Amino acid sequence: MTYSIAQAAERSGLSIDTLRYYERIGLVDPPARDSGGRRTYSDDDLGWLVFLTRMRTTGMPIRMMREYAQLRHLGAATAGRRKQMLYEHRAAVRARIAELQSCLEVLDYKITHYEQIEHTFAEGITA
Amino acid sequence: MTYSIAQAAERSGLSIDTLRYYERIGLVDPPARDSGGRRTYSDDDLGWLVFLTRMRTTGMPIRMMREYAQLRHLGAATAGRRKQMLYEHRAAVRARIAELQSCLEVLDYKITHYEQIEHTFAEGITA
DNA sequence: GGTTGACCTGGAGCGCACTCCAGCTCCTAC
DNA sequence: GTAGGAGCTGGAGTGCGCTCCAGGTCAACC
Predict the structure, then answer these.
(1) Stretch B39-48: mean pLDDT
(2) With contacts defined as CB-CB under 8 Å, which chain B residues touch A54?
(3) Is residue B127 scored above 70 in pLDDT?
């Protein structure tokens, strides 16, 4: 099964421009081309794109994804280093979640504060 | 208690340049100045800066913080709208956390995959 | 009174991750 | 055979959030 760039964009959640951009900067291998010179993405290509979008979502910088892609290119010998990268990134994502949760508490506190003001104000009116 | 810009930077976690930048774009009110024309931040100023850094950490865009700052300036009458903004932002933060957690699962899966490869490889050697 | 160091201003520059554009080719359908 | 639409390329432009810089002022210490 192969996909046009439009289909690949739709399935990966990236824009067509972004797909070409990722190819240009070496984040994805150049896909096959049809007789007319158009890109045809394979299921493997799609899988990689989806993985990339997941990593982007977690805030992995492009330069890191590129490094990962290059290691992947070098084959099984680099599996250890790739695993190490994922370990480290996982730790970063966990830290980020913790950070967000801590800020969430501040938000909750602030919102409670606003609700108290409203409450006080309502009492003032009925009193 | 007042603070120099360097002290305010240290306590808020923002850089000196960022403090001046925030002032320039209307995110913080211009602080008082000493006889030599230097900024002197009050405890209130500091409190606002800390709140801003929390919101920035959660990914609130600067334009939204500016809107919030402007509403705050208009006084108690805008409290409802500010609360509404915080509600919406809280929902966004929660969604973001959920998204990160879902990507974390992908990461876990991928890492497990690498560990399995290593395991298989180790067996191959000892066999 | 000279040097040092913190701070000032306006404005330019930067890194990131896209996003858009002009001008072209190619296939398809009528 | 031509009109339309998808895709192609190289390169320029964008938005965000800072960050840096030159050239100056000011206060304090020696």
Answers:
(1) 97
(2) 103, 106-107
(3) no
Q: State the best of B108, B114, B115 to mutate against chain A, taking most chain A CBs within 10 Å.
A: B114
CA separation for the pair B60, B62 (Å, rounded): 6
Which has the closest alpha carbon to A46: A62, A66, A58, A29? Answer: A29
Q: What is residue B2's DSSP assignment?
A: E
Distance CA B22, CA B8 (A): 13
Q: Compute, in degrees rounded to 10, the torsion defined by CA atoms B71, B73, B75, B76.
A: 40
Q: Choose among B42, B24, B43, B26: nearest CA to B34.
A: B42
Judge if pTM exceeds 0.85.
yes
Q: Is the pLDDT of residue B61 over 60?
A: yes
Chain A residues with CB under 8 Å of B119 CB are none
Cα separation, A50 vs A45, in Å, equals 9
Query: Strand C: which bases are under 7 Å from protein Cβ?
Result: 6-9, 16-21, 25-27
pLDDT digits (tens, 9 = 90+) for A38-74: 999 999 999 999 999 999 999 999 999 999 999 999 9
Q: What is the DSSP string of chain A?
A: -EE-HHHHHHHHT--HHHHHHHHHTTSSPPPEE-TTS-EEEEHHHHHHHHHHHHHHHTT--HHHHHHHHHHHHT-GGGHHHHHHHHHHHHHHHHHHHHHHHHHHHHHHHHHHHHHHHHHHHHHHHH-
